[in-house]
Amino acid sequence: MKRKQTLKKRIVGRPLRRASAGLIASLLATRFAIAAPPAPLPQIPGYQAVQASRQTINMLEVTAYVNGKPEAFAIDTGASSSVMNEFEALKAGVKPTESGSPYGQYHYTKGQTLRIAVVDDLRVGGMDFGRGPIALFSEGRSMFSLLEKDRTATKVAGLLGADILLHYKAIINVRNRQIFFPIGANHASKLGATVASMGYTRVPLRLENGRALTVPCTLGGQSGRLLVDTGAFATFLDFNLISEMHLPTQATAMRFGDFHGQHNEASIARIQDLQMDTYHLPPQKLFVLGGTVLGEISRSAETRIFGVLGADLLAVQHGIVDLEDMSLYLK
To answer: What is the pTM of this model?
Structure first.
């Protein structure tokens, strides 16, 4: 990453201090160097289990068969629609829709317009999703800059987004890298009773704008929401919120790309009292971002969006995203 010049501006009367490379490395290490996961959840009657891996930028990845061609797909609850790289889609025989298609021709998301294509056969593990639409993105699309520039293990061809995950009422065990999909008509998971005995706390999920998953939270005596995003490699809070609360921050050399091609400076703040419903997050340092990262979700949500709960904390806090009963379980 390119190192930026030290910021000289002040925030709420407190000078920004540059965080050392060692501090940033330590912060990231506590997120990504996760100990061996505990024993996996028992099989859930009526559900098909798919084992994922944790590869590119801390995302959960599965092997998806697109018209019979194996491709690496990330599990992304923060993506409203499933998407695929247009070049890989072409090789798999996935073609854009034509005028008059019941799926339409264009998908508008996060300030960008994507072409819609149709996959004739999409499978993940033992799950057959059949035929359906998928949005296409090009190599140059800024909203996928992390996927394009920071691939470290496998080539991610696309994302399984909230459209498929919600429709099939998936259960995502982030720490143990398991995804459960329902099979048959009778698939009530009744997961709550099982995980309650294992020490988990339930946090209710809510849909914003149809497909954005959020949980209630409080910080500094204020109430808001956090976007639950398994596709975000790090948890972060909104810069304006932290500034209003007069919390000191440290600047870093890191920059995060947003959905509109802008790159925003990342700083770090020590957070003492972040709570999600009845779940108290242990005090720790979190990233703080400004700019338009939260975008249209923040502007149109019923309650202010405080930030994003990413894959790092979801893994560390044993997160299970249950889209059957719209719950997030943490411990």
So the answer is: 0.84
